[in-house]
Amino acid sequence: MTVIAPPEPAAGSPRPRPARRRRVGLARATAMLGAALALVLVFHTMVPDVAGLGLVVDTALPWFGLAVPLLLVGAFVARSRAAIAAAVLAALVWCIMFVPSVVPLSWTAAQASDSQLTVASQNVEAGSGTAADSASTLAATGAEVVALQEMDAESREAAGSVLDEVYPHRYGVGTVGVWSVFPIENAQMLDLGLGWKRGLAADLETPSGPVSIYVVHAASARPAAHDERDAMLTNLADHLDRDENARVVAIGDFNAGSSDRALGDVAAQLSEAGQSEGGFGFTWPAAAPVVRLDHVFQRGMAVVSNTTVAAGSSDHLAVVATLNLQ
User: Fold this and answer.
1) Rounded CA gap, 115 and 104, in Å?
2) Which residues, given as ranges, of the chain have pLDDT below 50?
């Protein structure tokens, strides 16, 4: 059998261009990745939590924005309208979801009123040996209320040695505690369904009327083990739903990032303001924060300021917020 070889291209005829093929491949990849990113951003709560995938996606969601500049560069290099459209779509979705929360609160914050409540909260990290330092730093912010989490017997005593002199009213249960310049009424352990003493609820009797306060230290969350944390946050939302006070504050270590689906029921009832100086307000790990696990949620008040503060040697930054009571 005779095989006839294809004729050689005539001199001057066009040859296949590898650069063009690469651009086509880049265009297709960029368009697919841009569309996929936009879909994940919008429907991240529908990502199945198989082997903790949902938790990882929810937690990392703000960081997905780092992919947007790469997609835009790839799209323009590929000179593809479809790729550019997909990259721009991903950019718009990310901006809609996160830009409002990273714009400095100071640009739009309410004017300070004559009646305010400043709350400060930190997970002091049991065993760090610096609970007293944390307490001193938080008291120095001028906060009327200081809430601490993850206290063992030693850290509770150390924090109390500082705060008891400044705050005449206090209540603690298990690993959490609250100190206040305002009287504390109806204080009780917050039953979050697991029998753990890692939450409390009380009323702060301020000159402007009562404010419900919840101090929470949710269970730890790991990709393959976060059911207990999810149950605690769901039960917290149930308590918030039954709270009859017009003004409510829920603070502490929620062990859930701001975009975590487990916070959905809490965030549906209470809101969290952006940071006074802008940004995401990440709190953990303190040395190089990548996620905001510590929150100040509220309803019925206007937030004047909201910041993070390094205190002691805890692996969590503290959160400090000032609210108008009137």
Assistant:
1) 23
2) none
Could you state, in order of their start, the residue ranges of all structural domains in the chain?
Answer: 18-102, 105-324
Cα-based distances in Å from 145 to 117, 140, 202? 8, 12, 12
Contact 179, 111 (CB under 8 A): no
Contact residues for 246 (Cβ-Cβ < 8 A; gap 6+): 299, 300
What confidence score (pLDDT) does residue 18 get? Answer: 79
Contact criterion met (CB below 8 Å) for 55 and 256: no
pLDDT at position 2: 57
Q: Quick one: angle between helices 18-42 and 81-102, nearest 10?
A: 30
pLDDT value of residue 17: 72
What own/partner pairs with CB < 8 Å and gap ≥ 24 does 189-197 have? 190/214, 190/215, 190/216, 190/236, 190/239, 191/235, 192/216, 192/218, 192/231, 192/232, 192/235, 192/236, 193/231, 193/232, 193/234, 193/235, 194/219, 194/228, 194/231, 194/232, 196/232, 197/173
* 27 neighbors 75 (Cβ within 8 angstroms): yes
Task: Please give the CATH number for the structural domain made up of 105-324.
Answer: 3.60.10.10
Write the secondary structure of 163-205 as one string of H (helix), E (strand) and C (coil): HCCCCCEEEEECCEEEEECCCEEEEEECCCCCCCCCEEEEEEE
